[in-house]
Amino acid sequence: MELRLFQKDVAAIVGVSTDIVTLWENNQSDPTAKFVAKIIQFIGELPPIFPDTFAGRVKAYRYRHGLTHAQMGKLVGVDGSTIGAWEAGYLPKPENDSAVKRVLKTI
């Protein structure tokens, strides 16, 4: 609104339909990792859609860098399904703790 843009303008910039922008604005859907980088580029910061929890920080890191679960898992040294579990609220095993902290401190 501050930029005086219509939903269709924002949709064109980000590369989605106006319906998707409406869903995001009404908190009926969150953008996928694919679009978060474009949103960051557009608004200059990470959208406030991630809680300040371990799960939220993992997801925010993954989205900020446009990573899939598998890519993030490779970066941390775990399976991609483990990243998904962490985002769902499961905590890492002690043997993964140092790798996770190393990655997350860059957030």
**Over all CA atoms, what is the radius of gyration?**
15 Å
Mean pLDDT: 82
Quick one: biggest sheet?
Answer: none
Cα distance spanning the termini? 28 Å
Question: Overall 3D geometry?
Answer: elongated
How would you portray this structure in words?
With 107 residues, the chain is mainly alpha-helical. The protein folds into 2 domains: 37 residues, no CATH class; 51 residues, 434 Repressor (Amino-terminal Domain). Helix content is 58%, strand content 0%. The protein contains 7 helices and no strands. Helix 1 crosses helix 2. The protein is elongated, with a radius of gyration of 15 Å. The two termini are 28 Å apart. The relative contact order is 0.10. The model has no long low-confidence stretch (mean pLDDT 82).
